[in-house]
């Protein structure tokens, strides 16, 4: 790495008390992390003694197991598998990238659309051609027309 104004450190550099590197996962190495934290403490005028038996891999595996258990207990895993294997259901409204965000005071989404159709954010009108008496002009994956009110942006 080409370092200007600092000393090289793991394909990055150190400038004073700031350390930077591009090595993703470098702190996952138990030996490196222990030595690094001892050095950081020394540079700060402190003494640090790392626990010799802490294993990042074991702790990460325990966290992933807990996360998996929570998903299994509290999520509809059959529905999730359906989305993974078959994609989103047909007929969902299409909101284009860059559509305006919900404004202040607008109702927040709670993950379930009210019947018969979800409310659109202010300035964005999503209409279905069949409800307008027009021939379909598919633009979104569900065949909905999407109109953006430029003045609301």
Automatic annotation (TrEMBL):
Biased composition (Basic and acidic residues): 144-153
Superkingdom: Bacteria
Annotated segments matching region Disordered: 86-153
Entry protein name: Cobyric acid synthase
Origin species: Streptomyces globisporus
């Amino acid at each position: 790495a080409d370092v200007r104004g600092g000393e090289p450190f793991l394909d990055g550099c150190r400038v004073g008390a700031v350390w930077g590197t591009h090595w993703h996962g470098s702190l996952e190495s138990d030996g490196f992390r222990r030595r690094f934290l001892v050095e950081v403490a020394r540079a700060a005028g402190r003494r640090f003694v790392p626990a010799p038996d802490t294993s990042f891999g074991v702790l990460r595996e325990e966290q992933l197991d807990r996360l998996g258990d929570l998903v299994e207990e509290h999520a509809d895993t059959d529905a999730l598998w359906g989305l993974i294997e078959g994609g989103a259901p047909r007929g969902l409204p299409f909101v284009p990238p860059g559509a305006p965000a919900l404004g202040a005071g607008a109702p927040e989404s709670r993950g379930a659309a009210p019947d018969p159709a979800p409310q659109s954010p202010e300035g964005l009108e999503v209409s279905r051609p069949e409800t307008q008496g027009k021939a379909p002009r598919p633009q979104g994956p569900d065949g909905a027309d999407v109109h953006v009110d430029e003045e609301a942006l």
